[in-house]
Amino acid sequence: MSDTVATETQGVHVEERLLDGTYVLQAELPGIGSAKDVEVTVTQGFLFLRAERGMESPETRRSTRRYGHFTPLPAGAKEDEATAEYEHGVLTITMPVSVSERKTDRITVPVREPLSAGKR
Predict the structure, then answer these.
(1) Which of 13, 41, 92, 94 pairs as cysteine with 28 (C-beta 3.0–4.6 A)?
(2) Structure pTM?
């Protein structure tokens, strides 16, 4: 089973999914030249990514574009086994998730009107 979530922060389009015990995050980083311009860190249950593109030309002198994104990791994510690959403008980060530590139940939280709503 796979749940995919897509978000966009600071110009980064990100898709996250949990598939067969593996957490996968893909981030589009247009214009980033190589993997050396990308930084991925994991700390205290959060994944952080940063990338920077710098260009110089006679017309613009220097142009810099910075990308950044952070996201909480799923429960049971094995942070020390994370891998990352950057190819054709897409960063793919994967890490195994321990199924025994992950909740698989889906809980629906009821949304109620405030108690004071009926007294208006």
Answers:
(1) 13
(2) 0.68
Going by C-beta distance under 8 Å and a sequence separation of 6 or more, which residues neighbour residue 16?
4, 5, 6, 7, 23, 24, 25, 26, 71
DSSP secondary-structure letter at 98?
-
Encode pLDDT of 69-86 as tens digits. Answer: 889 999 899 999 999 999
pLDDT above 50 for 6: no
At which residue do the structure tokens 């809980």 appear? Answer: 107
Nearest-angstrom CA–CA distance, 2 and 12: 22
